Amino acid sequence: MADLAVLQEILGVSFKDPSRLEQALIHSSYINENPSFAPTSNERLEFLGDAVLDSVVAEKLYQDLPSFTEGEMTKLRAALVRRDTLAHIARAIRLGDYLYLGKGEEASGGRHKPVNLAGALEAVIAAIFLDQGAATAKNFILRLFNKELQKVVSQGAEANYKSQLQELVQAREQQTPVYYVIDTKGPDHDRRFTVEVRAGDAVLGKGSGKSKKEAETEAARSALESLSTNFTR
Fold first, then answer.
1. 131: annotated active-site residue
2. pTM of this structure
3. In the listed set 144, 173, 197, which residue is the last one of a domain according to the structure?
4. DSSP 3-state of 97
5. Which of 122, 131, 196, 214 is flagged as catalytic?
6. Among 50, 105, 131, 214, the one annotated catalytic
7. What is the pLDDT of residues 169-197, one digit of tens each?
8. Does any domain span residue 152?
């Protein structure tokens, strides 16, 4: 049987009713072989957890990416809540070790299957939501998904600012913006880059960051602000 005390420590959540967490770990194959153990599998919790996760991620993207369109945010949310991402996060906390599986599912590698891991993670989110409330569930999701959120937001912002600038400059000037590294400071482990973005000889914006991509994103953002201000005067 799963050691729920250890799992709660890993999750950083102390359940008022640990049976909710246990319910989140029960695969349908286990119920088929042990019908008296529990009335149902974790599938209903999975349904609820999926909705809670969608809502939290949508709110986070809405707050962090004010310039993004509905379509752009929808794509980023899909990347964050897709099965492979959920399975990756579930593996990181070794959630598969705690699943209740039938013998056949166990023998076929069920503890490592993305569909089982993703479903169990969504079910755990629902269990936390029901046991601890919306605020705790939200904090759990943001903590667990922090790295993936930062990566997706960063990649999305980079693509968004640079693509917006390119469209604007091409429409106004019939030129393509070009990025130049104009300064590099600091040791290898703490390098900082400064980048200028230009259209022809004109400097449109400047930005700095810990990587060339981050500096380019900041330069594009700066250029968009400048061009927008100049255009409205």
1. no
2. 0.70
3. 144
4. helix
5. 122
6. 50
7. 988 888 999 999 999 998 888 899 999 99
8. no
